Amino acid sequence: MNIALASDHAGREYKKMIGEHLAAKNIDVADLGLPEEQIKADYPNYARKVAAEIIAERAEVGILICGTGTGMAIAANKIRGIRAAVCTCEIMARLARCHNNANVLALGARVIGPELALALVDAFMAAEFEGGRHQQRLDLIEGG
Ligand code: RB5
Question: I want to staple 7 with a disulfide (CB 3.0 to 4.6 A). Which of 15, 58, 113, 144 is the partner?
Fold first, then answer.
């Protein structure tokens, strides 16, 4: 599975940690920034970068990290085809995939600890969309 990963300045350390965590599992990770030398960054720019990789099918899923996860999710969800979920517990991460077919996990580095962040990444990656009634509901979101 290919993963696109990005953060703003608030998520910088978690981005590094998550990138290393996934690389250790031999998962392909594209780190889309922010660059190490950049002091501050506006999260919508990074949400768009990750969304673009998914829409172009260069990545299957994305992980976005900011202070709370909220700004990243709001920005990413503006892009058609993106289903970003802010998750703060493992069941949210699992069900975001199983029920909502989320293709972006949004995390808040200022609101969850590092061990939980990695557990959420693992739960999100391990889960699969269940389809069926959940697909019908996703179709309704898209106006179908
Ligand atoms: C940056 O200070 C902060 O606003 C941002 O990381 C994020 O939490 C926004 O949702």
Answer: 15
Provide the domain limits for residue 41: 2-141
> What is the model's pTM?
0.98
Is 109 a residue whose pLDDT tops 90?
Answer: yes
Is the Cβ–Cβ distance between 85 and 104 less than 8 Å? Answer: yes
CATH number for the domain harbouring residue 34: 3.40.1400.10
In sign, the C-alpha dihedral spanning 106, 37, 51, 55 is negative
Q: Among 9, 46, 66, say which to mutate for ligand 1: greatest number of ligand atoms within 8 Å of CB.
A: 66
Strands (E), the chain: 2-7, 28-31, 61-66, 84-86, 104-108
Atom in ligand 1 nearest the alpha carbon of residue 71: 10
pLDDT digits (tens, 9 = 90+) for 21-66: 999 999 999 999 999 999 999 999 999 999 999 999 999 999 999 9
Number of domains the chain is built from: 1
Report d(CA 108, CA 137) in Å as an integer.
27
